[in-house]
Sequence to fold (895 residues):
Amino acid sequence: MTRFAFPYFKLTRQYLAAAVFMAITASTSIGFAAEKINIYSHRQQVLIQPFLDAFTAKTGIETNVVYSSKGLAQRLKAEGPASPADVILTVDIARLSEYADLDLLTPVDSSILQANIPSRLRSEDNRWFGFSERARILVTSKTRVAEGAVLDLEDLAKPEWKGRICSRAGSHDYNRALVASMIAAHGEAATETWARGVVGNLARKPQGNDRSQAKAIFQGLCDVAIMNSYYYGNMKFGDKADQKDWAQSIRLVFTNQSNRGNHMNISGGGVAKYAKNKMAAIAFLEFLTEEKAQHLYGEINFEYPVNPSVLVNGELASWGRFKPDTLPIERLAALAPKAQMIIDRVGW
Amino acid sequence: MVATFLSNFARAQRQPVDRWSIGVILLCGLILGPVLAVLLSAFGDSGGLWSHLYDTVLGRYISNTLILMAGVGVVAIGFGVSSAWVISRYDFAGRRMLEWMLLLPAAIPAYIIAYSYTEFFEYAGPLQSGLRHLFGWQSPRNYWFPEIRSLGGAILVMASVLYPYIYMVTRIAFRLTPASLFEIALVHNRSQFWQVGLPLARPAIMAGLALVMMEVMSDFGTVEFFAIETITLGIFNVWLGMNNLVAAAQISIVGFGFILALLGLELYARSRQQYVSSSRNQTPLAMLVPTKAGVLACWAVCVIPLLFGFFIPVGVLVGLVATNDLLADFLAIRGIIGNTLIVAAIAALVIMVLSAFIVVTASFRAGSKTRKLALFASTGYAFPGTILAIGVLIFTGQLDRAIAALFGPQFQGILITSIGVLFLAYIVRFQAVGYGAMISGVRRLPANMMNASRVLGQGYMDSIRRVIMPLLKSSFLAGMMLVFVDVMKELPMTLLLRPFNFDTLATYTYQFAKDEMLEVAALPALMIVLSGLVPVMLMSAMLRRYR
Fold:
């Protein structure tokens, strides 16, 4: 036993000591590297890489990224003051407000951000900012639904759409925010009645993502679907031939144009509370609101600029001008839990 | 405090605690830390959410979860046990190839198989298009076709990739069953399968089934894509939809409770039975030679699971690889392939060494309480990956705070900001796989093997090294193979806990698959399967040698 066990132990101890030493030197030496920012992102790397490349080209500041769709707020919280993160990037206001609720963001006093972002798309205390707007719209079959047959979200509960609507699961972020916007407009009780009507009109059990709803229209399974508008662009200009067909078969309907405007959500971000590279982090946020980056949102993912001085151009402009819902985006996050409860109750 | 706890532990066990047992207890404590962190975070105010959940969705969550578990369990046992029996008892052409091929579905991530199955089975997929073409149907209203995005679809999809967990350990069990017992059945004209093979393989089947059940319980990718409201989907709705991590942790305990009940049931059932063979195989077990029709049946038994678990999904992926320049695409992700293989290899080795240490010590050195602790330490597998990852973060954060308090502020965040946190997560989660493989090996050892060695004057360590470990080699390798492919395809924890600018094939695949850009995701997804192929074949060859 001794012959076997003891030399082994000594050896591991030495290795352990060496490993600890190396870990310490490695972790301290990081601080002396060239100027850089560390980003925790809820947006996929493929979507943010062009922004990062443009930012590095302009400023020389390097970027490091961790991408995860869930749980980064908990990671940031657990890391505490030791966290290496400088910038948080998210999609959907629900994620942004989660960071704000957990007190993980630091207020940023920047006149550029104030000027470039309308106040309804950033937090009152300047902790988070919206960088692009995403429109959640209705799409209808070009062949089976007449233009103008559906105008408002409210129409979806009407009996004429029985068995003709497709949707992804109600508890997805996008639909939850949409239901929250309905609560803001009509109150809880009326929204629940409406949601129950929509669910009663569904052509099939809610499933898939937004693209699969367009596909279902193309296949004739349903006539109307709820979809984020950028999926239309992604299908139309994507690599897949069959998805182009799906896009061909649908018409875009920006809703509620004669009243509150089309429901909008944002992608956004903020500076981490314990950011080590705060100045560079702020520079990055400012960069995202400038003309070049604002256009990139449209070019890469067909999202709308938040900066009022940046004109919508190219493909996006061809979809037509529309009136967005001007509800302060923060309300959507505040109403999200109530929206989820309604979704649970009506079984969406 | 730890010392008092340990000595109390010793007293409770009425035997001295030696350092081997202490090692196991400390190790299990480390592994259970993140699980406890999740459990502890459930002790909070959920804001009266439960009455809402109870009134609305909870019943659906629970019944869907139970149906899913039962369905996947039955199908996976059907696939796994039948193929393991055919492979270990019958001699037919192609057996050697099928033997390792049957493991391949384990290398396909569940979220990928869900996507590719939808491609294949849905309205616009090749199957329905072909049928329409064949029969002249025009629209979905002309015919009925089962909906793949359903509970039944999820059962098929999950069982098709999870059955290898059962196949792997059951095959070893069949192989190690003493030939004499089969001969007795033969002499008495009784079924070799029902009356000898199956009863004696039960511990192995149960060990594999436990893994399958935990995998089903923790799955999020498939159920989200198929929109099946299970407990796990509920966890995420409550956490992300209602910003209520406390209630989410509470729901995850409900799921955890299911798994504990299952383990308890099996523990109870086994406490009244003993599975011990008193001899090694003195004479090699003669394989049965099937008739011509029998050969066909053997092939059918093996090919059906392979068809669903491998050929269909891989065929879809191959069809989707839209690239003209395969080599360039391959070179572009070679760094990621390297990352994946290195991480999976290190994690598999570490996990198996720890599992072997825990299982062997708990079985031969420690008391029954330590054995239960070792079993309990393998339950991290039952939590959804993201929830477990949050547990790992909370636990590591606390550990860091303790280290900084003890050794000074320069150590602040030393663990949580390192890649060590990812490996800890792998250990916490996949310890169950290593444990399952090792424990099913240990349970087949004759009880008196260790005693005989000690009586003959060997020390504990020498007995382990000379007698026990050689007999457990095949279990060790089987476990290592499963952990390797498991780590390779692991997604949610790697996604959340990885260092900056670090991708594995799974995370790289996911960012495309997330938006159903399956044509871009197809190549890295195939790489996961291919990278899994080499170690699976290698370890299969080694397993064959240790038969």
Observations:
- The CA atoms of residues 250 and 441 of chain B lie 35 Å apart.
- Chain B touches chain A through 67 residues (CB under 8 Å).
- Chain B has two domains: 1-41+324-514, 44-319.
